[in-house]
Amino acid sequence: MIDARTGVDASASALHPDEYALFAQVARSCPVEAGQKLFRRGDHGAAMYVVANGAVELDFGDDLVGKRLGARAFFGELGLLIGDHARSADAVMAETGELLELGRDEFELLAQRDPALLAQFLRRAIMRVVLNEQALIARLRRRNQDLQEALDALRSTTSRLDESEALTRTDELTGLTNRRGFAAHVEQRLQAGGLDGHVLVLVDCDRFKSINDTYGHLAGDRVLQSVANLLRAVAGADDIVCRLGGDEFCLILSGHAREDAERIAGYVTDSARMLERMHNSPPQMTTLSIGACLIGTGSHAGWEHWYALADDALYRAKRNGGDCVEWLD
């Protein structure tokens, strides 16, 4: 909802329910009586607050419009993010209630527990700072240097959190998307219109345990990296390739006919076989078993059905001795 007096979206001042639940896990709970002064304009502080219940009034002085904050509203975030920041308003508890206080230690806990959700909050916090800054410029014809520093700090923090989130979705050994990232990609595709017509390909390394036992885990790691490079090479821009864990990989081919997908899967097994023969002591590659299925257009079956189908096809390939492709549709 847009505040007609300031032009700023009032909802930007409140935490989303999932954000509030996360913040409440780590914040310090502070009961506060009505009329109690929280801080004065110009005071230096290094914490932010969230209204759990009750209400808080902010008085910015001069001719600036004050604010009344209710449940889940947050304020004072620049003190936390910049550190030892001069408060821009007087804050008074208007109704007896409870505040959640977060300092630097609690902020670090938030980043550890859910970097993606914290990044979401910081992006909205940046937007609120930008909108408030624009409103102040329109009214006062001047820029506040502290806000510019806050933007720089927030952008830097958000960038680091985005990088951290990307790392949590990437397999460290191969650089491919990991199982968590794969699940997120699938969910995005399903929300965007589904996976009808896509081809699901599950890949398993043949005799991988024997390679580890005979040549050691470093040799096994090199084999996994070679498999990842092979799958990466055949994947198109809209395809998804990931390492599910251990010696299991997955490929979702987008916009490919069944015949094209069969050709790609055959190329993968043929290439792996050839590379295994070229470098066999210690091995750089191993033969591969592949189970695949075409996700049916117009079918009401869920993702779990298609994954189970491809997994059954993979089991059939392994049972047939490996180094082959099996399909179930």
TrEMBL record:
<dbReference type="Pfam" id="PF00990">
    <property type="entry name" value="GGDEF"/>
</dbReference>
<dbReference type="InterPro" id="IPR018490">
    <property type="entry name" value="cNMP-bd_dom_sf"/>
</dbReference>
<dbReference type="InterPro" id="IPR043128">
    <property type="entry name" value="Rev_trsase/Diguanyl_cyclase"/>
</dbReference>
<feature type="domain" description="Cyclic nucleotide-binding">
    <location>
        <begin position="12"/>
        <end position="110"/>
    </location>
</feature>
<dbReference type="InterPro" id="IPR014710">
    <property type="entry name" value="RmlC-like_jellyroll"/>
</dbReference>
<dbReference type="Pfam" id="PF00027">
    <property type="entry name" value="cNMP_binding"/>
</dbReference>
<dbReference type="InterPro" id="IPR050469">
    <property type="entry name" value="Diguanylate_Cyclase"/>
</dbReference>
<dbReference type="GO" id="GO:0005737">
    <property type="term" value="C:cytoplasm"/>
</dbReference>
<dbReference type="GO" id="GO:0052621">
    <property type="term" value="F:diguanylate cyclase activity"/>
</dbReference>
<feature type="domain" description="GGDEF">
    <location>
        <begin position="196"/>
        <end position="329"/>
    </location>
</feature>
<dbReference type="InterPro" id="IPR029787">
    <property type="entry name" value="Nucleotide_cyclase"/>
</dbReference>
<keyword id="KW-0175">Coiled coil</keyword>
<dbReference type="InterPro" id="IPR000160">
    <property type="entry name" value="GGDEF_dom"/>
</dbReference>
<dbReference type="InterPro" id="IPR000595">
    <property type="entry name" value="cNMP-bd_dom"/>
</dbReference>
<dbReference type="GO" id="GO:0005886">
    <property type="term" value="C:plasma membrane"/>
</dbReference>
<protein>
    <recommendedName>
        <fullName>diguanylate cyclase</fullName>
        <ecNumber>2.7.7.65</ecNumber>
    </recommendedName>
</protein>
<dbReference type="GO" id="GO:0043709">
    <property type="term" value="P:cell adhesion involved in single-species biofilm formation"/>
</dbReference>
<feature type="coiled-coil region">
    <location>
        <begin position="130"/>
        <end position="167"/>
    </location>
</feature>
<dbReference type="GO" id="GO:1902201">
    <property type="term" value="P:negative regulation of bacterial-type flagellum-dependent cell motility"/>
</dbReference>
